[in-house]
Known about the structure:
By secondary structure, the chain is α+β, with helices and mostly antiparallel strands.
Amino acid sequence: MTPAVIQxxxxxxxxxxxxxxxxxxxxxxxxxxxxxxxxxxxxxxxxWKWRGTLQxxxxxxxxxxxxxxxxxxxxxxxxxxxxxxxQWLDRIVAHGLGIRSRVELTLTDAGLDVVRPGATDFFVPxxxxxxxxxxxxxxxxxxxxxxxxxxxxxxxxxxxxxGFRSDRAAEHAAWVEAVNAMNMTEHPLTTTExxxx
Length: 197
């Protein structure tokens, strides 16, 4: 063999592949990451429970009375949550109001019936309805402008905004009009209130 061939053979022997991955270190990193994710999830869960405890003064949600009158409007869609009225990030989680779900809404002369498969149903009497509007977001859900139907109602000593999205968003405007018309019937503005607005 010539010296050049011997040198090439020596260089080839030196250029061997890198060592195989250190599996012990990799498994330790993966386990550490999984523990961290579980810890963050646990903290989020504790925060949710803590918020529910802070809102424990909220009365139980009323159930729909038997024999509701003929409905004015009905829709199917999604319930996106409830917040303190006017504070779209202050989510209310007490009594299951923080759980997103499918929803069937029915507006009657008696009030608003909210049926949520897999979550707590509730009923808002007509006297407790304070109005409705189109909005773009509510605690953890942001949509296009006017993509969310927000109904404001009184419960206990709180005003609550509940966000809904119909499967047919074109229905939202009719709901706003109907709920606001009911509100005007139940709570007509006095002369001074009208002047303030």
